[in-house]
Amino acid sequence: MKKSPFANAAINVAGWAIGIIIFFPILWTLLTGFKSESDALAIPPVFWFVPSFDKYIYALQQGEYLSFFTNTVILVSVSVVLAFVLGLPAAYALAFFPGKRANDVLFFALSTKFMPGVAVIVPIYLVYTRLGLIDTTLGLVLMHVALGIPIVMWLMRRFFSEIPFEIIEAAMVDGASQFTIFLRVALPVSIPGIVTTAFLLIIMGWNEFFFAVNLAGRSAATLPVFMASFFTTEGQTWAQMSAAATLSIVPILLVGWVASRGLVRGLTTGSVQ
Amino acid sequence: MTVTALPSTTTVSAALPGRRIPARWMTIPSVIYLLLMTQAPFVVTIYLSFNSWNLLYPARGVRFVGLSNYGTLLRDGVFQMAILNTATFTLVSVGITAFVGLALALLLDRMTVGRGFAYTLILAPFLVMETVAPIIWKNMILHPIYGLLNWVLGLAHLPPLDLVGQQPALAVLTIVAWQWVPFMVLVLLSGLQSLPNSIREAAALDGAGSWSNLRFIVLPHLKPFFAVGMLLEAILLLPMFGPIYVTTYGGPGYSTENLTFDVFRLLTQQYDVGKAAAGGVITAAITIVVTIVLLRYLRPTIERR
Question: ipTM of this predicted complex?
Fold first, then answer.
């Protein structure tokens, strides 16, 4: 369509402006983390100031941030790996050897994703208390694996389906067992899909709040639980809070930005093969 | 949906040695795991909902009370308000994000320079954890004294606004919309970019103005994308928790509690296992009904692609 250069420029400028406005709260938080506490509260707001790394260094060295960060990293990495260990074979079987029940299994898995957390939290809370799993990373891992499996099954089934069935068939003719084919043939060619799925699981696990706050409120608490503890607006140290908030969201912003490209790339390479 | 393209392989696998270890068994560990962690607890929740059990009064023990937990909850004004709030929060946020999302997706779609840059910035709020978004908003932006909003309003000689204090539900909705508009943009932009330019150009040649182009070509094409986006968003926002927990903690009073928050309070503050379980079952029932109704209504639109 032909548009006047003026209209084009106006559309582009409007797009950038809206992007910056929407992103501004995040940028402002990042900047506030570099301010002194008095500058953080100043009205009119201070736009030009000598940045200080104190708040970030404090959060990383003495503050509570680091222990919650460690909890979150352990929780996310272990539960993502376990969700793959359980979910990948299922996705493989559903992609290549669906059987009569394949749709039932897929929709069963999906339905567990749509179940609100409050529909299961009461017995899980009681059983965890009885078994000593309350406020442990292990307890949260067990729950997060259940949240991850349906995603692995749905996404990876699609990625596996893009592998020509002839490759699997040839390996079967050679006498390879299903497990060998899965491990040696299907997995290696599905790395882009696995990476994309892993990014999604990491983002969701990192940000998950409901189960984290109900099942691990203190020593095993994750970053979302830690950040929620800033909920009172009275007597806050905003610069400190902003530094912790920035450090909590930046890792996942980076993962998300990489993943948004990776998702497109993963899908296109899959279809070219 | 996507389930149709399964290869039919039964004959091949029956004739081959690989048949000895049926691949179908590979689904069993994950199915058992999901049964154990989600279905079983749900069944136990239903069982618990028929009992009176408060952890604060262990001497009273566990008593079967039939439907009385349900009766108490459904007659309780706070719980009724939680149902109403759940509906309001879900419907309004889905509505706002669909509307704003469409406007932004149309704008991004027409950008010629720096679209990736704008897209990256717009995507960001969706990645922010649901407890940090309200922390940022209620402090740095909406705070009545130190917030940026009132500073800007003051510059424009407008009266100051205390959104969290005066209109707490609106504050929650603002924050949720900020987080979920990117999701709609993502879905609708992928829809717009799957519409071949040639169709729009042909329509323009036939004399269609940009309004009728939007009305008769772009919007009908976007319908299934709207359907998928709104369905997912409704199901994901119905049990919304973090924004309420951090912005208002259900208050003032209980005025901004939704179902999830009400059950959370029954369990972790009143230790009322029976009532919390009944609340959980009611929430699940509402979610299931909403999902089925939406699917039935939206499925023809989704499958028409």
Answer: 0.88
